Amino acid sequence: MVDSPREETEPKVKPKDYLANLGFAMELINSDTSLQEFIKRVRKYMDKNDGRTPTAYELDELKQGIDWFERLNAVQEEARMFQTDPRRRADWKRAQELDQQKVRNIAQGYGVEVSDEDIKAIALEARLNGLTDQEIQQRMRPFLETAVVSGADLAGRAAEFERDILQWSRRNGLQLTGQTIARYVQDGVEGRSTIDDIKNDVRNTYLVGQYPGWSDRIAQGFDPADIAEPYKERMAALLEIDDQEIDLNDNLLQRGMQSVGPDGKPRVMPLYEFERQIRDDPRWQYTDNARKTYSTMADDILKMFGFR
């Protein structure tokens, strides 16, 4: 019996279906130029062969010279030898311990607690797949975000960044989400941003639009909390309260900081006008300042009629 031609017995699939079945994540492909070159080779092969999928032997040929596979093969072969060769099992165990310590050190740099099981899993992935330190750092991000969102205590540089961001944002009347804080902490820990870079980003992202009358000053690096100090001082004096008790989100202070002119455009409210608004606030009616003002007004009225 004559065998059927090969091309009639093997299924034909579309290139995009074949590539999907390779199981490569698009993120991985986009991150490595040698993998992109491999995908081009596969597509070119299939175009020439009427959509036929390469055999395992042909795939090995297509992988020749592709850096990603050469790195992967070297690491996996080393791991296989460590695991199967009785003479090298002690070396394999020691290598695992070193890998786990590296992952643990990176986790500590992020200031997050990672369970021993997760440490071992990430270390094994790093060994088998040849993960770089940067790729191991990326594995820490979900742990960091979970810790920040849940309110868990961080340590090291991560704790410093979190503390500085929280204190500064609250002082300026902002309540950032846990996800946003986690993203800024990641940028700080991974060296992409300093604390000043983060503050500038928050100013331009959130505060410039919140105080349009002061947008030019805020864009230059001034904080709303500092800009509001003269308004707070007048509030503290006329309402007879400690200026430290005045939150930037106080409704009266917000009206002063977010003033709009008769033309509907944002403007800077003069202090004398803000003082009039303070005296219109219900809190002012119960101050000694108000009683003295009313007393003076009464005396002036009596003088007008000749009773004083």
Please explain how this structure is put together.
This protein has about 300 residues and is mainly α. It folds into three domains: about 5-70, no CATH class; about 100-210, no CATH class; about 230-308, no CATH class. The protein has helices spanning about 5-10, 15-20, 25-30, 35-50, 55-65, 65-85, 90-110, 115-130, 135-150, 155-170, 180-190, 195-210, 215-220, 225, 230-240, 250-255, 270-280, 290-305. Helix 7 (about 90-110) crosses helix 8 (about 115-130), helix 7 packs across helix 9 and helix 9 runs antiparallel to helix 11. The protein starts with 5 loop residues before the first helix and ends with a helix.
Keywords:
308 residues, mainly alpha, 18 helices
The 3D shape can be described as elongated
- Low-confidence segments, given as residue ranges, are 1-11, 13-25
Number of strand segments: 0
β content, as a range?
under 5%
Query: So how many helices?
Result: 18
Cα gyration radius (Å): 34 Å
The sequence of SSEs as H and E is: HHHHHHHHHHHHHHHHHH
**Could you estimate the helical fraction of the residues in percent?**
55-70%
